[in-house]
Amino acid sequence: MNEFAGSLVPQNVLLRKSEVYSILDEICQDLELTTAQMEAAKASYEAVADWLSSSDNPILQHIDVYPHGSAGLGTSVKPLGREDSMSMLSARFPICVGTPAR
Predict the structure, then answer these.
(1) 27 — phi, psi (to 5°)?
(2) Is the pLDDT of residue 23 over 90?
(3) Cβ(56)–Cβ(63) under 8 Å?
């Protein structure tokens, strides 16, 4: 039945939809963070984790810091009109000292 319904759509409508999808795909690719930006974000949150874990506080010594939100999902996009990007971080504190980090 879907094949029959698809054959009723005029060719020019299908071509327009194809063009729109192509344009949207190009826009999405332009908004994706570069490999260098992703690596810089990772280095930043790892630096935060290293700094916190160097504390004398035993809870902080076992902290686990990781990207949250779109960065954690790998779907981060560049902010419009800026070269930098923002990542949200989450921190997991162990319930008791000695609990291994994720």
Answers:
(1) -60, -45
(2) yes
(3) no
